[in-house]
Amino acid sequence: MGKTSYMRLKGSSHLRQRLVLSTLASTPIVVEEIRADDTSPGLRSHEISLLRLLEKVSDDCLVEINETGTKLRYKPGVLMGGKNLVHDCGIGRSIGYFIEPLILLGLFGKKPLSVRLKGITNDPKDPSVDTFRTTTLHMLKRFGVPLEGLELKIESRGAPPLGGGEVTLRVPIVPNTLTATHWVDEGMVKRIRGVTFSTRVSPQIGNRMIYAARGILNSFIPDVHIFTDHRSGPAGGRSPGYGISLVAETTSGCLISADTSVSYPKADEMEEYTEEKPELMPPEDVGVQVASMLLEEIAQGGVVDSTHQGLLFLLCALCPQDVSKVRVGKLTPYGIETLRNIRDFLGVKFVIKPDPESTTVILTCVGCGMKNLSRKIS
């Protein structure tokens, strides 16, 4: 046994992505100075929960955290996948925060992954489970992932602050490698689909959001269809909340999404509102807001919306040693940081070329040739 050499990193930013890349590239990492100057230093509850989840889906992985939580030593194990796993994501971040890493890791597991996640299904910070179901999973088929065995089922919904939602995620393993993609044609929007959710509030709220969103979208396109998903009782989780998720489908099969949700703030954010409960944003405003967000995403161009840039670049980098070429709108700070992390962990560099005519950006890279080695061992 040789001495393990660790890659040294600092700070808490993009910890989730660094853990995923460290696991895929089998590179042990040490992260120091995690929120060292913060009033409450160290790892947050959702980050520790993510580490526990990584331990569940892999074998022989090592996690060491110092007493203050400001230093983390992580040595990845073999990705196992596994079925009927259960994980409580807590109420620090929504389930969306955990799904993205699971999708990437699940593809390279020894066995297909099937996991039940409990917690918050829709919040304003992370993409909602609806967006993952309608948009993210369909993006994977561009990279040769079989759609059979790839599903996300919403058993019950949970809004912040108390959550109470449950979803089941199933991810198949890639036969050997992903497929490099040439994906630059964004096409024109031909239809818009969406779903509103409401838990522990009047069922009418869904219709009010739809009416407001259609008021904006119908002036551009007639084919707008938004479904309602009203949950009450145990399927509605523990807190009142409502929101809407929209997806625009283009003639070339790209899906552009936007979503938002409204709920009462968490206990630690409630201090400002000591006297009474804060007023929630009216459903009409929510409908208008999300329709405007979707139009903004469409206007930026690109084959995916801004929230999916990071995942798109990661998938391109994990492809075989062949050229992948994709077009995105304006690069987001998260997308840029993803490109840096990919360079550091996988040694893959992207050629970034702005397209002045459409104000989009074309990125080209040669994949790192990630193979599903865990599968071969079995």
Unreliable stretches (pLDDT < 50, length at least 5) are none
Task: Give the SSE order as H and E letters.
Answer: EHEHEEEEEHEHEEEEHEEEHHEHEEH
Q: Helical residue percent?
A: 25-40%
Kindly provide the radius of gyration, computed on alpha-carbon positions and rounded to a whole number of angstroms. Answer: 21 Å
Strand content: 25-35%
Through-space gap between termini: 23 Å
SS field, number of helical segments: 9
Count of distinct strands? 18
Largest sheet geometry: 4 strands, mixed
Structural class: alpha+beta
Q: Can you put this structure into words, describing what you see?
A:
The protein has 378 residues and is an alpha+beta fold. The protein is 28% helix and 28% strand. The protein is built from nine helices and 18 strands. It has helices spanning 15-24, 45-57, 96-107, 129-139, 204-217, 283-300, 309-317, 333-346, 373-377, and strands at 7-10, 29-32, 58-59, 62-65, 72-75, 78-79, 82-88, 113-119, 151-156, 165-171, 182-183, 189-199, 224-231, 241-250, 255-263, 323-328, 351-355, 360-366. The strands form five sheets. A four-stranded mixed sheet has the order 1-2-5-4, covered by helices on one side. A hairpin with a 4-residue loop joins strand 17 and strand 18. Helix 1 (15-24) packs parallel to helix 8 (333-346). The two termini are 23 Å apart. 47% of the residues are buried. The model has no long low-confidence stretch (mean pLDDT 93).
